[in-house]
Fold this protein.
Amino acid sequence: MSIPIYQVDAFTDRAFAGNPAGVCLLQEPAEEGWMQSVAAEMNLSETAFPIRRADGDFDLRWFTPAVEVELCGHATLATSHVLFSTGILEAHEVARYHTQSGLLEARLVGGMIELDFPANPSQACNIPEGLLEALGLDRAAYVGRSRFDLLVEAESAKVVRKLSPDSAALLGVDVRGVIVTATSDNPEFDFVSRFFCPHVGVAEDPVTGSAHCTLTPYWSKKLGTDAMLAYQASQRGGVVRCTLAGDRVKLAGNAITVLQGELVA
């Protein structure tokens, strides 16, 4: 039996930008080892595996080429794009995903796909040994720890863009990933960021929805607003519209399918 599979560029409105994700539309439950092998074959930062439930919702899991992860924003956006663009869901419907991070939702809002995710605020912490050296930073305005990651505020957007971390050294820091951020020097955006996560087999993730679950409450408090536009300043780059809504965040972006086919193995 063949299985539909897609490659979607998420958090962008043009091909070959944003963050590419695999979306494998399961028609029946699959073995974890098989899903991990498919993710390794796709060799993208994450591949998503949605399967429809009897109640019309979806079970959803995400795998990097190396491990399963508990939360992934861009692959959820990519999955939602596939469901809406292929007619599996109508434009007025809400995609509801049951995941390791609880119930997540996605809907079409103002021409974008808006994700409803749990906020994941950081708490200020001592700077882990070797962190700044691994990032190539002399200093940090803030270092905090969230459920998954470390959040580091650098002194400028220019510093964020020029970072070239030592991935091997970052493996010595006990955390899923490291978010580095600063206020934007482009008036179009409120803040910029980059995300480094060698622990899950990805040196740098191009655009990271789950990181914005931490960035949104941080910058909301600092900037005094609940609504922001963010730019993830990786080589590919991507735009995330962020809204803080209590203990939830709304992350909106565009997506575009660049490849579709069938798995036959």
About this structure: The chain has two domains: 3-114+252-263, 123-246. The two ends are 8 Å apart (CA to CA). The mean pLDDT is 97.
